[in-house]
Amino acid sequence: MRPTPTPPPWTGLLVIQPLRRRHCARCRRGPLPLLVLEEGAPRCLDCADLGHLVFLPRGDTALTRRSREASALSAVVVRFDRRHGRYERQGVLVEEEALARAEERCLADAEARHRRRVRDARRRAAQDVRFAEAFALEIRRLFPGCPADRAQVIAAHASVRGSGRVGRSTAGRALSPEAVTAAVRASVRHTETPYDKLLMDGVPRAEARRRIANGVEAVLREWQLRKAA
């Protein structure tokens, strides 16, 4: 039988999750889910005076830190990983009351973060509405013949946050004429020409754009010259 590797020198009390069946050398209880090595012999948590502690698995750094801060007594729980050939941390043992207090603090923080996320989402939504309105107004300034509802649709599509579309580019956010015109041109390409059908028929994108270029420019000139409706 292979000997159990010696745990590394962790700071503080150390508790082991054994890989094989072990019994307490003092009370003979077992097999033990957790044990403490004292002078090389396994002890159950009760015999090691740790039986009143509760196990907190790893994964929530804030909860672990706060639980250990609030607990007068705590221990690190480790298990040997055969694949990596080392002991790895599995969690901690802390006082139940300390864990409850830590959970309350983390829950309060989570609620605060949720409220902040809601506020931020509302603020961004309001900003997006104002930006889309400004974008639509700039479309109407450059292309007075573009119907108002169509300008709003183009602006809403081009300015979706996180879309990567021209309206969210640096030039788009600055309402540069080039960016606004690019958004209008893209909309006309897909709506007023057979561009999409050409792509579906297998026509290469560059060739499809070449075929519909004159039609796109004709619509843009019409919208530029026509008076606002």
Layout of helices and strands:
Elements: E1 13-16, E2 36-38, E3 41-43, E4 53-57, H1 61-70, E5 75-81, E6 86-95, H2 96-142, H3 148-158, H4 170-173, H5 177-191, H6 195-200, H7 205-225
Parallel strand pairs: 1-5
Antiparallel strand pairs: 2-3, 4-6, 5-6
Radius of gyration: 33 Å
Task: Tell me, briefly, the overall form.
Answer: elongated
Strand content: 5-15%
Helix content: 40-55%
**Average of pLDDT:** 90
What is the count of helical runs? 7
Largest sheet: 4 strands, mixed
**What is the N-to-C order of secondary-structure elements (H for helix, E for strand)?**
EEEEHEEHHHHHH
Number of strands: 6
Which parts are unreliable, with pLDDT below 50 for 5 consecutive residues or more?
Answer: none
- Separation, N- and C-terminal Cα atoms: 90 Å
In the sheet with the most strands, the strands line up as 1-5-6-4
Structural class: alpha+beta
